[in-house]
Amino acid sequence: MSNANGTNSASNQNTQQIKINLNASELAVAIGVNPYQNIRDLFIKLWSRYFPQDYYRLLDDIKKNNKVEIIQETDYQCLQRITNKYISGDDKKNLDEQIRECLQA
Question: What's the CA gap between 28 and 8, in Å, rounded?
Fold first, then answer.
């Protein structure tokens, strides 16, 4: 059934509007002018920020059905995991110190 402005009133009742705020850097990713970030990562970030129940429900389903481990980690944890895998000894120690300084800046 259509309402006075010609739209379907049943579908309007089921539609929820959400305001989504983007930082300038996120906007640059969204319009494709930031070559250093992938728009896919932005969508996942926004999905988890604005629709957390849906996002985490899907993650749980993926874990159960596919028997995979999904890693959610901070930037520092990601860098630690990578350096532990590929770098050892004094190089690892020096790199770890440089990463800490960089993340604190």
Answer: 35
Q: Residues with Cβ < 8 Å from 69, sequence gap 6 or more?
A: 63
> 81: helix, coil or strand?
helix
Gap between the Cα atoms of 75 and 84, Å rounded: 14
Convert the pLDDT of each residue in 28-80 to its tens digit: 999 999 988 889 989 999 999 999 999 989 888 888 887 767 677 777 787 77
Q: In this predicted model, what pLDDT tens digit does every residue of 10-27 receive, in sequence order?
A: 555 667 888 989 999 999
Please indicate, yes or no, whether the overall pTM of this predicted structure exceeds 0.85: no
- Residue with structure tokens 């305001």? 19
User: Distance of alpha carbon 2 from its chain centroid, rounded?
Assistant: 38
C-beta of residue 37 within 8 angstroms of C-beta of residue 24: no
61-17-55 Cα angle (round to 5)? 15
- The C-alpha angle with vertex 50 and arms to 26 and 29, in degrees rounded to 5, equals 15
